[in-house]
């Protein structure tokens, strides 16, 4: 598999999913906002 820009972005989006899920389960407004920001950044790409 060639690692061009689109493949790198896809791999990064896949790797960030568990981080977002873990941040959602932590009961803190800061972690909720952090999960939201990570989700938005992944969505923009």
Report the biggest beta sheet as strand number plus sense, adding barrel if it closes: none
What is the mean pLDDT? Answer: 93
Low-confidence stretches: none
The shape is elongated
Q: Which percent bin holds the helix content? A: over 70%
Spell the H/E element sequence: HH
How much of the polypeptide forms β-strand, as a percent range?
Answer: under 5%
Number of helices: 2
Structural classification: mainly alpha
Radius of gyration: 12 Å
Task: Compute the separation of the termini in Å.
Answer: 20 Å
Number of strands: 0
Give an overview in words.
With about 45 residues, the chain is an all-alpha fold. The chain is about 80% helix and about 0% strand. The protein is built from two helices and no strands. Helix 1 (about 5-25) packs antiparallel against helix 2. The longest helix has 21 residues, at about 5-25. The protein is elongated, with a radius of gyration of 12 Å.
């Amino acid at each position: 598999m060639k690692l061009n820009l689109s493949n790198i972005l896809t791999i990064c989006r896949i790797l960030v999913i568990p981080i977002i899920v873990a941040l959602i389960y932590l009961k803190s407004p800061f972690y909720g906002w952090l999960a939201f920001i990570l989700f938005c950044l992944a969505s923009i790409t």
